[in-house]
Amino acid sequence: MTESDELLAxxxxxxxxxxxxxxxAVHTVEESKALRGDIPGLHTKNLFLRDGKKNYFLFxxxxxxxxxxxxxxxxxxxxxxxSFGSPDALLEMLGIRxxxxxxxxxxxxxxxxxxxxxxxxLATATAINCxxxxxxxxxxxxxxxxxxxxxxxxxxxxxxxxxxxxASA
Length: 169
What we know:
The protein has helices at residues 4-13, 29-35, 69-76, 87-94, 143-152; strands at residues 18-22, 42-51, 56-62, 82-84, 114-119, 127-130, 137-142, 159-160. The termini are far apart. The chain is 25% helix and 25% strand. It has five helices and eight strands; from the N terminus they run H-E-H-E-E-H-E-H-E-E-E-H-E.
């Protein structure tokens, strides 16, 4: 499994420009807002989900988004509804623990067992901020750098529009 320093070196080696900020460990959006400092761009929230048929998804959205899992399940074709994946499955599939979930964790899913889904809000962000597999850091990627990371990871951006959803879960 790739760890934070290895990931950042991997990005640099492949010409993906990423700026990383150090801060105290954060476990919630509220802690992140209080401790990360002023980092411009969209800050992400990541939902590691599974459906009733044990298909796994990583849904990446804006940190302030309220996501209706029933509506999201319909939009992505989940079988039998969505629930949060277990910490054990998260470690097995993406090589990370709760609190450090990030779009960058797909680097640890070479087999493609986790379907990556992005909130459409990410497509227009000036910068996308996420943990580089360590909740004591925030890495900022431009749209070009983010696209480069996805390509390097063998993934395509699959956007889901949640803007019209009823936010009540």
